């Protein structure tokens, strides 16, 4: 009877995931075309693109300047005693005129603002890609954990069938059957929980990116590895290719130009124009030029001081962004290296535990070990397989984050 049980256990698969499959052109990753569509249709990216169009319009606004043509007309009917009744009219056309230096500064402000917004839009797409990657690997990792638990349930069912047969043949006690049932029910509980987490992760991914068509079943996550060129090279690209830094630099330049513009605006812009009139029914006619020069007060100086302070703040913000990006680059590298090494340890532990399980099964068949020791080995193997599956997903998630932050994946800037 023990020989029958040993053969059943030998044919029972170990509680690990199936062989890795391909989800897209890269193992484990979705198709790049589907990713591009999902990112382009995300509301956050659409909003950023709309703000870019608004910045383009702002360039045209600043190019034309803040002043409109002003037409002022009047008509009078004047009656002079013992003379006559006269029709009289007057018209004048005026427009504010920027001093030449202000025109240049307005152009610079508009172009810096457009550059900043374009980079902010690209950074929004970048952040959305990170969110997609997080949701994607959360789903695949949850699916991998669920697969481990389902396989464990199948193994315990095989073991329970063999133990029940032994009970029928009076070669095992009911206690052993109860112990196996308890282990099976615990495995089923774990499988239900992991299956629920898989469904939640899939629903979150689908809710955020409905344009992406997901496969019916998540493919197994392949073994992680260092990307071509190495992790350190990608870390260096995080800082060099950052749209966030480019946006902050453009914003700082725009603030400097705005401060210079405010200082220049302490001298107000004049209004120039022409005036024509006709009095006494046309007996008196005339034309002339108009020049209006406003005189400022303390308000213009205060505005210049305010703009100068804002420029200083923008410069400080740029330094904050640079430090934050350096932190991101370094933490991305450290996280990817640590996750990759952790997976290697988890994979080694899983393989060792599987080898130990085979030996325990043989010992149980030979009568050297009892059922409780076999159940313990089964549970330990399941735990090791689950830990390896989680570590595998974590490693892929960390490497993918580094690749996205370095513009090496999905956001189209992978060029030296």
From TrEMBL:
Q: Which domain of life is it from?
A: Bacteria
Molecular-function annotations in GO: efflux transmembrane transporter activity
Its signal peptide is: 1-18
Q: Does the keyword Transport apply?
A: no
Q: Which UniProt keywords apply?
A: Signal
SUPFAM superfamilies (UniProt xref) = Outer membrane efflux proteins (OEP) (SSF56954)
Gene3D superfamilies registered for this protein in UniProt? Outer membrane efflux proteins (OEP) (1.20.1600.10)
Q: Which PANTHER family match?
A: BLR4935 PROTEIN, OUTER MEMBRANE CATION EFFLUX PROTEIN
State the protein's name.
Outer membrane protein TolC
Classification from the root reads:
Bacteria, Pseudomonadati, Pseudomonadota, Alphaproteobacteria, Sphingomonadales
């Amino acid at each position: 009877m023990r020989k029958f049980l040993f053969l059943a256990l030998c044919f029972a698969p170990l509680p690990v995931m199936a062989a890795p499959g391909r989800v897209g052109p890269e193992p484990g990753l979705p198709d790049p075309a589907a990713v591009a569509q999902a990112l382009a249709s995300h509301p956050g990216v659409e909003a950023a693109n709309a703000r870019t169009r608004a910045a383009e319009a702002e360039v045209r606004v600043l190019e034309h300047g803040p002043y409109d043509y002003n037409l002022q007309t009047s008509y009078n009917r004047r009656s002079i005693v013992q003379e006559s009744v006269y029709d009289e009219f007057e018209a004048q056309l005026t427009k504010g005129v920027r001093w030449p230096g202000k025109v240049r500064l307005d152009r610079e402000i508009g172009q810096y603002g457009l550059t900043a917004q374009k980079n902010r839009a690209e950074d929004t797409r970048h952040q959305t890609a990170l969110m997609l990657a997080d949701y994607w690997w959360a789903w695949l990792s949850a699916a991998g954990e669920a697969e481990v638990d389902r396989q464990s349930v199948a193994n315990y069912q095989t073991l329970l069938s063999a133990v029940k047969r032994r009970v029928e043949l009076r070669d095992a006690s009911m206690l052993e059957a109860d112990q196996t049932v308890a282990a099976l029910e615990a495995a089923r509980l774990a499988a239900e929980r992991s299956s629920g987490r898989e469904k939640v992760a899939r629903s979150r991914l689908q809710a955020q990116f409905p344009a992406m068509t997901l496969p019916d079943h998540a493919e197994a996550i392949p073994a992680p590895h260092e990307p071509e060129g190495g992790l350190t090279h990608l870390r260096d690209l995080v800082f060099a290719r950052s749209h966030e830094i480019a946006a902050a630099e453009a914003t700082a330049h725009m603030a400097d130009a705005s401060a210079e513009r405010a200082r220049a605006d302490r001298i107000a812009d004049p209004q120039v124009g022409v005036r024509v009139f006709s009095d006494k029914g046309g007996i008196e006619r005339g034309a002339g030029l108009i020049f209006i020069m406003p005189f400022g007060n303390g308000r213009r100086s205060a505005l210049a001081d305010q703009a100068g302070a804002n420029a200083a703040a923008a410069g400080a913000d740029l330094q904050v962004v640079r430090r934050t990006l350096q932190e991101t680059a370094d933490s991305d590298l450290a996280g990817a290296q640590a996750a990759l090494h952790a997976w290697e340890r988890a994979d080694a532990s899983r393989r060792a535990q599987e080898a130990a399980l085979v030996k325990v099964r043989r010992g149980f068949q030979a009568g050297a070990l009892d059922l409780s020791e076999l159940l313990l080995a089964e549970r330990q193997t399941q735990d090791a397989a689950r830990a390896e599956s989680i570590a595998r997903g974590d490693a892929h998630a960390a490497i993918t984050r580094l690749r996205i932050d370095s513009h090496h994946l999905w956001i189209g800037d992978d060029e030296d």
